[in-house]
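Reminder: ligand-aware prediction takes two inputs, not one.
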Amino acid sequence: VTVVKCGGAVPHEPVCADLAGLAGRVVLVHGGGPEVDGLAGELGVPARTLVSPSGVTSRHTDPAMLEVVTLALAGRVKPRLLRALAAAGVPAAGLTGLDGGLLRARRKPAQRTVRDGRTVLVRDDHSGRLTGVRPRVLRVLLDAGFVPVVSPPALGEDGAPVNVDADRVAAAVAGALGAERLVLLTSAPGLLRDAADETTVLDRCALAPGGPVPYAASGGMHRKLIASREALLAGVPRVSVCDGRVPRPVTAALHGAGTTLE
Ligand code: ADP
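Here is what comes back for the chain with adenosine-5'-diphosphate:
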């Protein structure tokens, strides 16, 4: 099994068409940051950011934003992917982490965030960390020849949905399925030595189990390296970050394009 994660700015059609020969052997995971921001704007829900004392930024998922995240991912991004898969003749079925008990998570009850130079506690954030994957529903769909299309949210321990990072969902799903490969498709040619220069793609990058992730990659790429390390620790033998903007992005990734994490 291969787990492919499709980034928010990656064009859907080429990815979906490229999955045609892989039905029953591939799981597609997606996020959708741009669509969440877009829908929040349409609904008048302010999009806010949390900044940890160490400088890591994340979305502030207050109760209204949690609703927007669920609506945007399950109601907009996923149907668009399913339509593109159907157009490519790929049998597919959409799931969030709530379906079949797929993704469990623990909400962070209080988070430190820096606001106007001061560290304050935020208690209404409904994001959290994955605590478990129950891959049975994926196995049923794969065995029947479908491509499962998976996104956050996850199911919280208190029964309420919890927003989780889609790259880490992909890593955890790959680990739970015993996948041979995890491919993170994004809008960069791979991990760049210099984020501003697309010609500086690293062929390979070693991630030490306990140490910091290298190349102070900002924002999204930093999260991808953390997710990649989690996948490697979960036993996924091949993990790569690859360009999702090329004509046959999955085929290119499976043939060694992008950056291999090890
Ligand atoms: P996605 O939506 O595909 O999950 P993100 O936008 O969250 O991806 O993260 C990928 C982005 O991270 C790239 O488009 C790039 O702008 C940025 N980035 C920052 N540092 C690096 C780096 N060292 N190498 C590659 N991309 C980087």
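The mean pLDDT is 95. The chain has one domain: 2-41+61-104+130-261. We will return to this case in the review session.
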